[in-house]
Amino acid sequence: MSAGRGGGDVSAATASVARVTTTSARAARSTTKPARPAFACTECGWTTAKWVGRCGECQEWGTVAEVGAAGVGPRTVAVAPTRSTAREIAQIEVDAARHAPTGVGELDRVLGGGLVPGAVVLLAGEPGVGKSTLLLAVASNVARGVAAGSGRPARVLYVTGEESAGQVRLRAERIGALAPGLLLVAETDLATILGHVEREDPDLLVLDSVQTVASTEVEGSPGGPSQVREVAGAIIAAAKSRDLPVVLVGHVTKDGSVAGPRTLEHLVDVVCQFEGDRHSRLRLVRAVKNRYGPTDEVGCFDLSESGIVGLPDPSGLFLSSAGAGVAGSCVTVTLEGRRPLVLEVQALVAPSALANPRRAVSGIDSSRLAMNLAVLHRHVGLRVMDQDVYVSTIGGARAGEPSADLAVALAVLSARQDTPLPAGTVAFGEVGLAGDLRPVVGLERRLAEAARLGYTRAVVPAAAALGDGTLPAGMKVARVGSLREALAAATAT
Fold first, then answer.
1. What's the Cα-to-Cα distance from 171 to each of 167, 275, 305, 307, 487, rounded to whole Å?
2. How many other β-carbons are positioned within 10 Å of the β-carbon of residue 347?
3. Which amino acids are annotated as binding site for ATP, given as ranges?
4. Residue 299 and residue 317: Cα distance in Å, rounded?
5. Per-residue pLDDT tens over the stretch 193-202
6. CA-based Rg of the chain, rounded to a whole angstrom?
7. CATH number at residue 177
8. Distance CA 299, CA 314 (A)
9. Under a CB-based contact definition with an 8 Å cutoff, are residues 210 and 232 in contact?
10. What is the pLDDT of residues 378-402, one digit of tens each?
11. Residue 380, domain member (yes or no)
């Protein structure tokens, strides 16, 4: 009997140990369960625990890829020795961070005064717009010492990944950019480019373009998100450690945005957009992002076979010689940054044979044209429901500012009535849906620019404030509060 009870106790103990062992094994398996893979968007960096076809942040398709295991805590926990000491902000020296002029006045205007040591500038634009020509001229000025104005020659490393060295040399000869200190290399390998920077120790680095350079340490083809991110990160690290100003040339997509991951624009210090029509010689450079200066400045350039030249006074390019005395034409003054530009808006209204008449624009926002036509119909009684309406600017300029609404409305009215506006008239003001005119900023600058070009009459919103209350000599200003009053003032002789 005792032996039987002892055998039962042994069996019970064995079963208990087995249960404990099973529980321990399950706990061990639960604690040693491998981490689930993480997925991230290659465009914006959005992360998710499982793969999806569309990014939940930027709404792009096919950009979510696996990046590794999702950690449960911070990866970097070790304390590394510091290489610099923290100082009070008032003790930080700023002399080494001053702008250095590039020798191209219009580009210096956009950059806020020039290139800052250690700054990385991204210049993006469509193919053939003139990016390489502009940067070759800047590199030549810096190499000759023309940029800083002191005459001290500098060393400039120009890396081309799209063209051969011979092609760049021919362009430099054509535009007069052959400088002794301008070093040229055709290379697309990132490690080799960093080796050239280490050996030559230049004062300026120009990389044309960032989408053509690749690293052997990263998978993917040149121009891919991972390659662009790696190239930009390595170049920026070299620029910051050497106080080396760097200019990167970037490609754009068909919608005008910078090609590659969105993080590229966040990494660099300055992002400039190069704009221009292939059928026009006018080129515009806009600062989209600038950590060292304003983001509302625009540089104007004239691109020709002999090179690219800055235009300090481009207003005359946006006016036609036949605009005066012609129906459907009105002149306005827009502000591109702090620079006033006088441009001409032309309109054509013709009978339509279509059930839905056409509304075609060039240099004007189509939605604002539709709004202006609706306001003209509702508050002025101008019927264009059975008419084709075409509105365009002169010289490839773009009137994206709301202050051009009044000029568009006057041009459409003039074209519909086939009556030209009085000579020497300019108009600017934002048109509201109630038919009212809203004030515009920079009234004194607009009036001064119009008076400088010989205009004598101006139709402006009544609520627009004039800085010191003085008007340009010889300028008559009609202050109006509604679109109907503006039409009457503009057509009065």
1. 6, 21, 10, 9, 52
2. 25
3. 125-132
4. 14
5. 999 999 999 9
6. 32
7. 3.40.50.300
8. 10
9. yes
10. 999 999 999 999 999 987 778 888 9
11. yes
